[in-house]
Each structure stands twice: as structure tokens, then as C-alpha cells.
Write a structure and sequence with these properties.
single chain; 279 residues; alpha/beta; six-stranded parallel sheet; globular
Length: 279
């Protein structure tokens, strides 16, 4: 595995790969890697002959400057973890000068999904996500890119963007990877104190209980209200808890196949998100 820090070196590598008829698989990340990221890498088995993992903590998708500063980082550990897989060809870890040139002033604007769920209380977040992902698509010249369903709204935004802008890349969705106690793997989990980590187990449990009630035919609104109260009683500040269409992210009043529970809730200043399908 080669560590690449500049756009120029990356361009030379991917240009030669395409000349040689290789197909490029991409896993975009913000680092602080865990088993969920490695699952994305492995999901490219048989789908790409070359694999690139990118690490870049993208400042323009953070609404809170403190959140950006506190986001966990550790390039050396990430590099060692990826090297152990034996299948990653390039770790691209640019600094901000390689991504946003002086005078940078052009961004992708996301409408629709940007106004709901995480976009509702993180205005502009998905503009930042869409902009950096497009730049990474262009810089890596990826043929296929893997994204986790844990960030399901992000997955929907990226799929829509690829369709709307005719980007020549295939999006590969990968199911959420969870801890033994069912908490969704996330780099932000590392910021939880021991007590908060124990509290965090209430999040997936509440979603599972909510799904069970919905499948049993309980009214949607009342069931969501009870689940919200359960999370609040467990110490969470709940930003949203919704049942929505997997295709459009529109709110659903019926617990039908193709709908999914979405939640964002915070313990202290640490925001956790999760989702589970009704099927």
C-alpha cells in the first residue's frame, strides 16, 4: 500500500491504472478507521482491480467548529490498519491545500434531502459532503465507490448527485456494521466516555423495540413518540426520530416495507445517528 499526499502523485498513479485497463474502487473516509470502514474495503472484492481509501476531515461539512476540531484523527494508526488488509493499493491522505485551492468558492448545492433529517439542523452539511465527494471522485477517477448504510441519508444524497450530474461512478451500498451490543460503528463513538458508551446502547435497543411495535401494527405517531421519550429518559437529546421512505426520504404514516426508522440523538456534545429498515 502506498501513502499518497498530493494530487499530482495520485493523478500519475490513476492515469497509469486506467491505461492498463484497471478498474478503481474508492472508499472515502474522514479517518479514525474501524471495522465498518474495513467492511467497505472488502465490499469491493471482485468489483475493482485497484482500491483507494481516502482520509480527509472535510471542514466545509461541519456546522460546529468545535466538532471539526474534536473529530478523532490518527493517520499512523489508520495507515497501519489499512496495510494489514493487504488489498488497499493507495491511501490518499491530502491536506487542505490539495483539496481547496486559494480562492476556492464553488460548491455543490443540495436541495430536497438537505432540508430534512440531518440537513434540518445541520444547514449546508450535505452541500459540503456533496462537494468533497465529487472532488474525490474526480481526483481518484473512481469507477465504483462504497458507502455505508449507517449514513443512509448521505448515501441517498450521493446517489441522487451521481444521477443528477451524470457522474461516471457506480455507488455500492454496504449494510451497517454494529458492535456486539448493536451500537452502530462510528468514529464518533471513540469520543464517548465509559458512562456515555453504556448509555449509547439504549439507542439501537430503542430502535429495535420501535420496529417491533410498528411490525405488530401499533400506530406510527404514538410509537415514535414513545420511542422518543424512551431515549430522552435514557439521557439523550433527540434531534429527530422519523419513519421515512428509503427511496425518497419522505415521511411515512404507514409502516410498510421500504420504510426505515431514522434517528439522530446526542449524548453531551456527541451526536450519534442510526437507522434500521422495517423489512
Amino acid at each position: 500500500m502506498k501513502l499518497v499526499r498530493t494530487r499530482q502523485e495520485l493523478t500519475e498513479i490513476v492515469t497509469q491504472w486506467h491505461k492498463d485497463g484497471e478498474t478503481i474502487g474508492l472508499v472515502p473516509t474522514m479517518g479514525s478507521l474501524h471495522e465498518g470502514h474495513l467492511t467497505l474495503v472488502r465490499a469491493l472484492d471482485g468489483k475493482a482491480t485497484r482500491r483507494i481509501v481516502t482520509i480527509f476531515v472535510n471542514p466545509i461539512q461541519f456546522n460546529n467548529p468545535d466538532d471539526f476540531q474534536l473529530y478523532p484523527r490518527g493517520l499512523d494508526a489508520d495507515e497501519a490498519l489499512l496495510a494489514q488488509t493487504g488489498v488497499v493499493d493507495v491511501l490518499y491522505a491530502p491536506d487542505e491545500t490539495q483539496i481547496y485551492l486559494p480562492g476556492f468558492c464553488t460548491r455543490i448545492t443540495v436541495s430536497g434531502p438537505d432540508k430534512m433529517l440531518c440537513g434540518g439542523d445541520r444547514p449546508g452539511h450535505f452541500d459540503g459532503v456533496a462537494t468533497i465527494v465529487t472532488k474525490l471522485f474526480m481526483q481518484t477517477r473512481a469507477d465504483i465507490a462504497a458507502f455505508g448504510e449507517k449514513d443512509f441519508q448521505q448515501l441517498c444524497v450521493i446517489r441522487r448527485m451521481v444521477t443528477d450530474l451524470d457522474l461516471p461512478v457506480t455507488i455500492l451500498p454496504v449494510p451497517t456494521v454494529r458492535e456486539a451490543d448493536h451500537l452502530a460503528l462510528s468514529s464518533r463513538n471513540r469520543r464517548l466516555t465509559a458512562a456515555q458508551r453504556q448509555q449509547a446502547t439504549h439507542l439501537p435497543q430503542a430502535l429495535q423495540d420501535c420496529l417491533a411495535a410498528l411490525k405488530a401494527g401499533k400506530p406510527v405517531a404514538a410509537t415514535l413518540e414513545r420511542c422518543t421519550q424512551t431515549l430522552q429518559d435514557a439521557g439523550f437529546a433527540v434531534h429527530y426520530l422519523d419513519l421515512r421512505s428509503e427511496k425518497t426520504l419522505a415521511p411515512s404514516e404507514k409502516a410498510d416495507p421500504g420504510t426505515r426508522l431514522f434517528v439522530a440523538a446526542s449524548l453531551g456534545d456527541i451526536r450519534l445517528i442510526d437507522n434500521m429498515p422495517l423489512a
